[in-house]
Amino acid sequence: MSRTSLSHTLVLLAASVPLLSAAAEPRRIDFTSCAKPAYPQADITAQNEGAVTLRFLVKPDGTVADSQVKQSSGHPTLDEAAREALSKCRFSAAPKAKQNAWTAVQYVWALK
C-alpha cells in the first residue's frame, strides 16, 4: 500500500462521560460538539498511530480550563494535537456548579 492511499481516522472514546465535582451532583459531558482534531501531517507521513488519554478540567461555564496527558500515545505531536482540539471544545454550562471539575478522555489515532 502506498502512503498516498492511506486514510486516517480518529476515534474519541468518551461520547458521554461523567463529570464529578465535590460541590455538584454528577453530570454528563457530551463530546458531539467537539471538532475532530487534524491528524498532523508529519505523523501521517511517519505512519504514527497511538492512543492518548487526557485529563481535563471543565469550568462551570463549559470551557476547558486545563488539560494534561495522563497516558501518552508515544508521539508528542499526536498528544499535543489532541490537547489543542480539546481546548477548543465547549460543553454545556452547569449553572449550579461552583467549581471546576476534572474528567478524562481518550483519543485513538489510527491510519487505515
Using brief descriptors, characterize the structure shown.
about 110 residues; alpha+beta; TolA/TonB C-terminal domain; 4-stranded antiparallel β-sheet; two-stranded antiparallel sheet; 2 helices; elongated; disordered N terminus
Write up this protein.
The protein is an alpha+beta fold. It has a single domain (3-111), classed as TonB (TolA/TonB C-terminal domain), CATH 3.30.2420. The protein contains two helices and six strands; from the N terminus they run E-E-E-H-E-E-H-E. The chain has helices at residues 41-45, 76-87; strands spanning 8-13, 16-21, 24-30, 50-58, 64-71, 101-111. The strands form two sheets. A four-stranded antiparallel beta sheet has the order 1-6-4-5, with helices on one face. Strand 4 and strand 5 (64-71) form a beta hairpin. It is elongated and about 45 Å long. The protein starts with 7 loop residues before the first strand and ends with a strand. Mean pLDDT is 80; it is low at 1-6 and 20-24.
